[in-house]
Amino acid sequence: MRVLLASAEAVPFAKVGGLADVVGSLPTALARHGVDARVIIPYYGFIDPLEYKIEPLFSFDFHHRIGVNQVTLASCQRDDIIFYLLQSAPYFGNEGEVYSQWDWDMERFIYLNQALMACLSQLDERLGWFPHVLHVNDWHTSLLPFLIRDHAEGERWNELATVLSIHNIAYQGKDAGGFLWQAGIHGRHDPDLLESGLTDNLLGIGIAYSDMLSTVSPRYAHEIQYPYAGYELAPLIARRADKLRGILNGLDVELWDPEIDPTLAATFSADNFAARRPDNKRHLQSFARLPVRSDVPLVGIVSRLAAQKGFDLALPALRNLLAWRDMQLVVLGTGEPDLEVAFWQLDQDFGDKARAFLQFDGALAQQIYAGCDIFLMPSHFEPCGMGQMMALRYGALPLVRETGGLADTVVNYDNGEADAGTGFVFQWQEAGAVEGTLNWALDVYARRPKAWRRMQERGMRVDFSWRKSAMGYIELYREARANLPG
Fold this sequence. Notes:
Elements: E1 2-6, H1 18-31, E2 36-42, H2 49-52, E3 55-64, E4 67-78, E5 81-87, H3 102-127, E6 133-137, H4 144-150, H5 155-158, E7 161-166, H6 177-182, H7 191-196, H8 202-209, E8 212-215, H9 218-223, H10 227-230, H11 234-239, E9 244-246, H12 273-276, H13 278-287, E10 298-302, H14 311-324, E11 328-332, H15 337-349, E12 354-357, H16 362-371, E13 374-377, H17 387-393, E14 397-401, H18 404-409, E15 424-426, H19 431-447, H20 449-461, H21 466-482
Parallel strand pairs: 1-2, 1-6, 2-5, 6-7, 7-8, 8-9, 10-11, 10-13, 11-12, 13-14, 14-15
Antiparallel strand pairs: 3-4, 4-5
Helix pairs in contact: 1-21, 4-8, 13-16, 14-15, 14-19
C-alpha cells in the first residue's frame, strides 16, 4: 500500500506541536508493516538543506486563478522514509516560522492544497509514484479531500482514498469563504455542511468529504461529537461517527528511552530505576538551585503555557500547597504572557521551593521527566497528550484531568497497595480538584513508598510505541479504500 501524509509540520524539519511528532514518526512504524509511506510538507525558509541533505527533484509552473507560480519539489530521506518538501514563492520558502498572521496563513495554506494536487500529478508523471491513500492532517491540508472528490477526473483520482486526522479540533481554519473564492475554489454543496453553516470552515470541509476520519485518542473521538469538545463541528462529526476512529498517538520509544538517553545524569530502566533514577532527581534539584533532598516530592511541569493546559486551575493550587507543604516545583515552558508572569511570580515568592524556566530546552525537558516525582498536566482538554506518556516512560507519575488522551493513558491509583494505577486523576475543572488530588499524591509519596514504586515500574513498562497504533492506521486506510465509490 502506498500512503502519502500531507501536513504543515513534521519532525525534525518543522515543529510547533504534537502534529509534527505524529507525522514525523508514524511513517517509520507503517514502513515496518510493509507500507510505502511518504510525507509532504512545505519547504519553509528556516529548514536547512545541508543539515537534512535535501536535494531538488523538479520544478514546474503552477497555473491557478491568481496567476502562475513556480513550484519546486525537493526530497530527502530520514530513517528510510522519503520526505517531499514543497517550495513556492511567495507562499513558502522565505519564512522564519511555521505560522504567521491569520489572513496570510489562510491564503497560503489554501494555495498549498491546490499546489499539492498539482504535485500529486507531477509525482505520477515524473516518478511513477501515486498513493493509494492520501492522509491529510488538521485544517492546513483538509481542503484536499474536497478538491479530489469535486474537481479531479480520471481513474487515478477516483481510486485515491482520503483520510483526515484531527489533532486538535480547536483550530479549524474558520471564515475561509473569501479566500476560497479568491483562489477559485468552487462551492461546497455537501448537505451536512450547508445545514451546519460550515461551508467556509476548512476543517469542516475535510470532515465532510474525507472517506475516513481519525483523531488521536479513543476518548477524544467520543468527546468531539459533543459541543463542549467539538464546538460547532460536533453535529457534523456526530453524523459521520461511523467513519471516525480514535487511534492513540505513539511514542518514538527509541528516541525517548531512559536507558540510553545521553541528556540524563544517570540512565535507568524499569529493572533498576529504584537504584539509579534518584541520581537524576539530585541533578535536577542542583541545577534548579533547590535543596537536594530525596525525601521531598518534586513536581514537574513541561508544557506550552496556554489556557488549554489548565494552569488557571493549577496555579492557585500550587500557590496554596507551596505555602504549607514540604514540596518542590520545577516548571519549563513558554506561552501566554499572563501564565509566564504567574509562574515567574511563584519562582520569586517560593525561591527555595519553586523554579520556573521560561524557555524551550529539550535536554532540560527530558531531565525533568527523569527527575521529578509527580508530572502535573491538568488540561481542560487534551486530544492525546505526549507529556504524560513521556513522564511514565521516565518513571514519573502523572497527575492529570480525566479528559481525552489523558483518560486513555493514565490509570488512577487504587489508594491501596497499587494493585492498579499509574498516576493520579481528577475530573472537575476546579482549582480545588487540582489541590485535593495533588495533596493526595504528596501524601502517598510520603507514606506509601512501596505503592509508589509499584506504580513507577508499571508505568515504565506500558507499551506506548507506535506498533499498535500503526496497525490501527493500516486498518483505517483499508476502510478508506473500501469506502471509495464503486
